[in-house]
Write a structure and sequence with these properties.
The chain is α/β, with parallel strands linked by helices. The chain has three domains: 87 residues, Arc Repressor Mutant, subunit A (Orthogonal Bundle); 124 residues, Aspartate Aminotransferase, domain 1 (Alpha-Beta Complex); 241 residues, 3-Layer(aba) Sandwich (Aspartate Aminotransferase, domain 2), CATH 3.40.640.10. Helix content is 43%, strand content 13%. Helix 10 links the parallel strand 6 and strand 7.
């Protein structure tokens, strides 16, 4: 028995109200009561223990004497000091039941749950409250608001065949049993092949299967964010990432996004002025702007992060939805990226969101902690989804499906951009994205997308107001349009409705501004308005 490890802490600190002999006695008593020092166990001689702990022999002797007086030990000359206490091994006595009387007047009110919510809950609720409340439309609305893929291209025949065959080939056990927290071996193997085809080499020890990419954001926040930590983030950025990081106590440092993605000059200024722990970035087809960081700037970003010792969290949520010939390498694929970047991706936007499957790569040192957070979060990802997706990828069906939806989505993108250019040539600014799901539009300065939304709802068309995506929520003139969920007929009709709403709103706003200006002029120069 290592007495120094067990009793050493009892001698630390100086407090005359709680002298060393008393602390030693209490520590020995605790160890006896919890069974750490067993019944009939022999304690060290007082001279021996005093030498181990670096205290006076009289200190140990006094502690032993008081333990003996309390009935925990017995001492015999020539034999030593032995534990005789049996209380910790006896059956606990049961107390008789006593009926308690409570005030019946307080029984009807119930628990006041509002007083018990965590800060995490309060922050996330406040963030969700930023989302606009739907108002009744005068016709069936066409929504360009959500970043949800169209289910009309879901390869249901392929999946029906896979599920039927797996069920008939005795795969039920692995589909319904727990799998390893890091992921099902078959899916992990297929994901590594998929990544290699994209130029991303990785080892098994660096891979973690996720329950969707949103879980990846949550795991990174749990693993790396302490209250008050600085986290650099694109401005604007993904709404649910902003919500999650803020709820975990991160101080988000917004870095502007321009036509080529993250502004590296602004980023370096942030790194130089603040001690930043992590950077969260979507270099390909960013949400909500749709912009992409050029290859040269990706390399520069990685070098900058390594210089300032900032970990990079790369969210490649729609990297497969590239509609142009140019291939955009992930930050993880560059030299040094494997030690600098935590990378995640998903099939939710390109295949089907309901499978709730994503994956993450991280340096081994980081992955060991992320894996623990994963176990704490949900033990493991749904086994059935993993087995089914592994077989789908193994059969080579994904690439054909991907080409189908890329053709369809690029056509929808082109149609929406064409309609915006023709119907609203002077009212809106926007850029045609090279991939992804979103078009980022801008009203003239001083106008509000939230105000526009009330006009749009009356016309039966919806979008996401841009202030949702800014860390400060103070940029009112932007809004986001999703072009993947609606077919071409819906896009055509929806753009007509949107154009009517925009023109009505701008006209109404101008009339209101002129009226207020006229009132101010009549009121005279000394009246504060």
């Amino acid at each position: 028995m290592n007495w120094l490890d067990i009793l050493g802490p009892s001698t630390q600190g100086r407090d005359r109200r709680y002298p060393v002999y008393a602390r030693l006695k209490d520590r020995l008593r605790d160890c006896i009561q919890n069974g750490q020092i067993p019944e009939a166990g022999r304690l060290p001689a007082d001279r021996e223990l005093a030498g181990l702990l670096g205290v006076d022999r009289s200190t140990v002797a006094r502690a032993y004497n008081e333990l003996e007086a309390e009935g925990f030990v017995e001492s015999a000359v020539g034999r030593g000091t032995f534990v005789v206490y049996k209380g910790s091994f006896a059956e606990p006595k049961s107390e008789p039941f006593v009926e308690r009387k409570f005030d019946k007047n307080n029984q009807s009110s119930g628990i006041i749950w509002q007083e018990k919510f965590s800060r995490f809950s309060e922050v996330t609720t406040a963030f969700i409250g930023r989302q606009p409340a739907a108002t009744p439309a005068n016709r069936q609305p066409i929504s360009f608001a959500a970043g949800v893929p169209s289910l009309e291209f879901f390869p249901e025949n392929d999946f029906e065949s896979i599920v039927s065959e797996l069920s008939s080939q005795s795969h039920c056990r692995e589909m319904f049993a727990y799998t390893d927290a890091a992921g099902h071996p078959a899916l992990r193997a297929e994901v590594l092949k998929h990544l290699a085809a994209q130029g991303i080499s990785a080892r098994e020890e660096e891979l973690l299967i996720l329950s969707g990419s949103q879980q990846g954001i949550d795991l990174v926040a749990r693993t790396f964010i302490d209250d008050g930590d600085n986290l650099a983030i694109e401005d604007p950025s993904y709404f649910w990432a902003l919500c999650n990081f803020t709820a975990f106590g991160a101080k988000t440092l917004p870095v502007s996004v321009d036509d080529e993605g993250l502004n590296l000059n602004a980023l370096e200024s942030t790194f130089a002025r603040r001690r930043v722990k992590l950077l969260y970035v979507m270099p390909s087809f960013q949400n909500p702007t749709g912009t992409s960081l050029p290859t040269a700037k990706r390399r520069e970003l990685l070098q900058m992060a390594r210089h300032y010792q900032v970990g990079v969290f790369e969210d490649n949520f729609v990297g497969d939805l590239n509609y142009e010939p140019e291939k955009l390498p992930s930050l993880r694929s560059f030299e040094g990226g494997e030690q600098t970047v935590i990378y995640q991706s998903t099939i939710s936007k390109s295949l089907c969101p309901g499978l709730r499957i994503g994956w993450m790569l991280a340096p081994e040192q980081a992955m060991s902690r992320l894996l623990i957070s994963k176990r704490v979060s949900d033990l493991s990802t749904n086994s059935m989804s993993q087995v089914i997706l592994a077989e789908y990828l193994r059969r080579g069906l994904y690439q054909n499906h991907l080409q189908t939806i890329k053709d369809a989505y690029s056509a929808r993108r082109d149609m929406m951009c064409k309609a915006l250019s023709e119907l609203l040539p002077n009212e809106l600014q926007f850029a045609k994205p090279k991939g992804g799901m979103f078009i980022w539009a801008r009203l003239p300065y001083g106008y509000s997308a939230r105000e526009l939304l009330s006009f749009a709802e009356q016309e039966g068309v919806l979008f996401s107001p841009g202030d949702l995506f800014f860390a400060g929520g103070d940029r009112k003139e932007f809004f986001r349009l999703s072009f993947v969920q609606s077919n071409q007929a819906e896009i055509e009709e929806g753009m007509q409705r949107l154009a009517k709403a925009v023109k009505s709103y701008l006209s109404s706003k101008r009339r209101k501004d002129r009226s207020e200006s006229l009132v101010n002029m009549r009121a005279g120069p000394n009246v504060f308005v």
